[in-house]
Write a structure and sequence with these properties.
The protein has 541 residues and is an alpha+beta fold. The protein is built from 16 helices and eleven strands.
Amino acid sequence: MHSLDEVLDAQVRWRELRLFHVYRLFVGSAFLGLLLSDYRPTTTNFSHDTTLLMALTYLGTAVAGWLYVRSVERGLLVQTMLAVAADLTFGSLALVAFGGLSGGTGALLLVTVAMAALMLPGRLALLAAAVATIAVLAEATYATLALRQSDRTPLQAGFFSVGFFVTAALFYWLARETRESQELAAASDSDRANLTQLNELIIQRMRTGILVVDDHERIARRNESAWYLLGMPDAKVAHLQEVSSELHRRLRYWQSTLQHDNKPVHLADGVPAVVPRFARMGAEQDSPTLIFLEDESIVSRRAEELTLTSLGRLAASIAHEVRNPLAAIHHAAQLLQESPDLPETDHRLVEIIVSHCGRMNGIVENVLQLSRRERARPETLRIGQWLEAFVLDFKQTHPLGEDSIKVVVEAPRANALVDPSQLSQALWNLIRNALRYGRDMDRPAEITLRASLSQDLEKVVVEVIDRGPGIPPKVQTRLFEPFFTTHADGNGLGLYLVKQLAQANQGEVDYTTVPGGGSCFRITLMTPQRVLPKAAAGARI
């Protein structure tokens, strides 16, 4: 893989090489046209046919190079070196043919050295300058010694030689600065484009509806949430009044009073209520207006979460303070219960104290579990084997008597990604409820733990089923609310804790009735290949 800078540098160099071939075509055509015209040079060191053949050869190489570079973008350095070598050769021959530096052909070598400095690495650019210098000095020496031309001066050749190296250094520095500027500009454009795309994606995925309305009250932009909260209107409808007259009325009210109407409103049938907010995007009166549509249900849910968090902290503080005196009362009641001097009439009163102390201790334990907010540590569990081990351990620590618990594994190879301690705690709460409330009249409780896969085969389902009287429909909608209970000795935190534990492991819990009577609490868990990255490790209850 090539970096962005390398790709941009290669694109610039290919463009420079194509322009160089265009220059070569122009020079070859100019020389050929000059030699074929009536203004051709009459004093040359070569014959007319030789110079004409030289010009034709150079033009042919220029055409071939131009065609090749347009069709094959491969071997950039080799193509550039061949083009520079051809120009240095032609320039050297032209220098000899047309009377040396005084004939004006030295400028061809100067341009070639400049182009080599633009397109080639530094050492190769200096090599081109050195070759041009050797050509100039060799031509001057040849003219002076062999041709006996007395008008040649070494000083002119020396100046040209120094000029070649100065040109190579200057153009190489300019080329490097230009490329760095282009790369910086391209990187800035790329970052700007990525940032724009990221902002657009964030705006589109926001749960808050966003509308941009121009000074003519036409909808210029909107995100997906705004389209939904407006009742999914036709995209061709652009005027705000046609989309929602109530929102248009509130916009006019805000424009005239600069005050918001905080009353929630349904902008369309079947969508949540919203509270519109307005803000001008500029200081001018005709600036576009930004409209925020806050889903009232989300706001209410956030407020409820904040309230529950505050209540949870308060309850945890109270529970912590109640725990020590409660333990003292329970211990004193047990000692009093063991006293031989206790009258028989007071035994029942002591039993009531011990019973209610145990109940209060259960409430304290549940509240403290909710307040600790332990981090989930998910593991991959073979759910069938784990359930069998869990039930065996439960039976050893909680004698069932005539009650029964059995495990049914419909997917023996199913794996779930879950914190085993938190899953154990959730199932313990559900089984305790089933043993207490899931029995039919005076019959023993029959509880079934069933492990299976969801219908799409992508999640693991653990069900706790009893054969009790079931739960009335009007109560089912509030089962998982904190502190909601229908029994005098319940505290309303057990099922809420189960819900929190399931959500901490990216799972869900719901309730369904059982045909023929009974209740079923279903916990849906993620499988290892379906879990979201990093989400399980960061979940909290």
